[in-house]
Every structure is written in C-alpha cells, then in structure tokens.
Amino acid sequence: MFDDKDSWSDFCSSQLILIKKMLISLGVGERLREERERLGKNQTDFGASAGVSRGTQKAYELESSSPDIRYLSGLQELGVDVHYVLTGSRVDTDLNNLSDVEMAVLGHLRQMAEADRNVLLRTASAFAGAASLEGAKGHN
C-alpha cells in the first residue's frame, strides 16, 4: 500500500517485483536446475549455451527472475524438456513407446481430412477434460 513515507518510484518498483514473482510458477527454478544437472552442465556453461550470464541463470534457478522466450527456445535446442520446466509434467515424445491403440489412432488421423482432424481434436480434448474432472472429484 502506498503511503506518504514511500516515494512513488519505490512503490512502483516494489509492485513490479511483486508482479514479476507472481509470473514465476513455483518450482520452475528447481526443475530448471534438475534439467541443467541432468545435462551435466554448471550454471555458467548452461546459461551461456542458452544465451544468458551465470548471474541470470542463477536468478532463474532461485526464481527471483523469470526466463524469457528466447532463453526457453535456447534451452529447447540444448535438449532441455521445457514443458517439464514450465509445468512440472513430462510428455513422452518417444514414438517407439506408442501402444497399439495409439498407433492405430495415429494411423487413422493421418488419413483424415483437416476438418475431421479438428473435430477429433476437440472430441479428444473434451474426453480428456472430463477425465481430469472425474479424477479431481475422486480426490475430494
């Protein structure tokens, strides 16, 4: 809250810091460190590979600063699971691990017209949303 004891610039600065911290998802820094260590890099080398200084890398890992899109794109090129860093969940992108059902669905998908693919995507999204709601109800 702004009062007479604070200058306007101090107040604005403190509000910007608060907003910036709100934009950083909890755990991003820890997951970023995990990925850095998984790749066997120190903060200096990892940061340089993604286009930032060691200090910036450290700030990202401490969650005192939020990474930008150029940095995240650089991480992607290094083999970092950016989806995991940002969300905390890993996505299995290894096509060799597809089940028979997944392979069949993918095969049919590739044979469909674009409009039909979009219908299938909306349908799959609706089913997935309903499943996650049912899962949430089961935990309450």
Q: If you had to describe this structure to a student in words, what would you say it looks like?
A:
With 140 residues, this protein is mainly alpha-helical. The protein has 2 domains: 80 residues, lambda repressor-like DNA-binding domains (434 Repressor (Amino-terminal Domain), Orthogonal Bundle); 45 residues. Helices cover 69% and strands 0% of the residues. It contains 8 helices and no strands. The chain starts with 7 loop residues before the first helix and ends with a helix. The mean pLDDT is 83.
Summarize the amount of helix as a percent range: 55-70%
Shape: extended
- What number of domains? 2
* CATH superfamily heading of the largest domain: lambda repressor-like DNA-binding domains
What is the mean predicted local confidence, pLDDT?
83
Q: Say how many strands there are.
A: 0
Top-tier CATH class of the largest domain: Mainly Alpha
The CATH topology of the largest domain is given as 434 Repressor (Amino-terminal Domain)
Please identify the oligomeric state.
single chain
Enumerate the spans where pLDDT stays under 50 for 5 or more consecutive residues.
Answer: none
Instruction: Enumerate how many helices there are, as a single number.
Output: 8
Strand content bin: under 5%
